[in-house]
Amino acid sequence: MIRHCVFIRFRDGVPTSDRQACYDDLAILCAKLPGALTFRSGVNVSPEVGMDKGFTEGFLIDFADAAARDAYLIHPEHQAIGGRIVSSAIGGPDGVFVFDLEV
């Protein structure tokens, strides 16, 4: 199983409704993709002050395997949602941190 972890530093002016719309659209996409097992999103609730490096929220997607994750990465809807996230992040791509774990 692959756990796809994405953490975001949204710009201050990005409305909560726009952020939530990205998560909602990702959840809809994952629900129709073979091999996408779970989707979760939320804000950072860690008590470790400063350790978040400004990444205040994010999402996790569990995929059955690397092939399912790879199909998601090239999916046109993922590309569009990812573009919205990057354009809303502080510094564009610098405001998005992606880390995949094999679990």
From TrEMBL:
<dbReference type="Pfam" id="PF07876">
    <property type="entry name" value="Dabb"/>
</dbReference>
<dbReference type="InterPro" id="IPR011008">
    <property type="entry name" value="Dimeric_a/b-barrel"/>
</dbReference>
<dbReference type="InterPro" id="IPR013097">
    <property type="entry name" value="Dabb"/>
</dbReference>
<protein>
    <recommendedName>
        <fullName>Stress-response A/B barrel domain-containing protein</fullName>
    </recommendedName>
</protein>
<feature type="domain" description="Stress-response A/B barrel">
    <location>
        <begin position="2"/>
        <end position="101"/>
    </location>
</feature>
